[in-house]
Every structure is written in C-alpha cells, then in structure tokens.
C-alpha cells in the first residue's frame, strides 16, 4: 500500500539525522565524503538519493541503504501516480 504524499528523503535526512545530531550541512557533507552542494541539493529536494548516496548514508548513520532507496522510490512513484491520467498509454491485451 502506497503512502499518501511521502516526504522527500532529504527532508527525512534533515529532520531525523542531521538536526538531532546538531550537524551542519558542511559537517555532514564532509563526513559523507560529498560536496556541500551535493548534500544541500538532496536536503532541499532538488536531487534524489542515488544508490551510492544510500550506501554513504547507511555507513554514516548505521541504517540500511535499502531504506534510503525505498524512501526515494516511494517519493518518486507517488509523484508519478499524480499524473497517471495524463499519460497517453494504451492497455495491452493478449490476442
């Protein structure tokens, strides 16, 4: 069952990981081995969680990479479903 309007994983990252630990974007980016710009894009919903970023987050926060990718997938799928009726697709049936 799909969640109703799931949050962007960057929002989850900020609220459940960075803020409780008192981490700045700069400090978190340095610990993750990415640029501040890269992390900021994720946190602001301008970029998604890539498989590599999911692994980095799993190492840094002792979580699973799959959980980060699942969040990203749920977020993207929910937004794609909002445009379902606008898609020009024909149903295929066996002859």
UniProtKB/TrEMBL annotation:
Alphabetized UniProt keyword annotations: DNA-binding
Organism ancestry: Bacteria, Pseudomonadati, Pseudomonadota, Gammaproteobacteria, Chromatiales
Domain HTH cro/C1-type per the UniProt entry, residue ranges: 13-68
Stored PROSITE patterns: HTH_CROC1
Molecular-function annotations in GO: DNA binding
Record field: transmembrane: none
Protein name according to UniProt: HigA family addiction module antidote protein
CDD domains: HTH_XRE
Pfam families assigned: HTH_3
UniProt xrefs under SMART domains: HTH_XRE
Superkingdom to which the source organism belongs: Bacteria
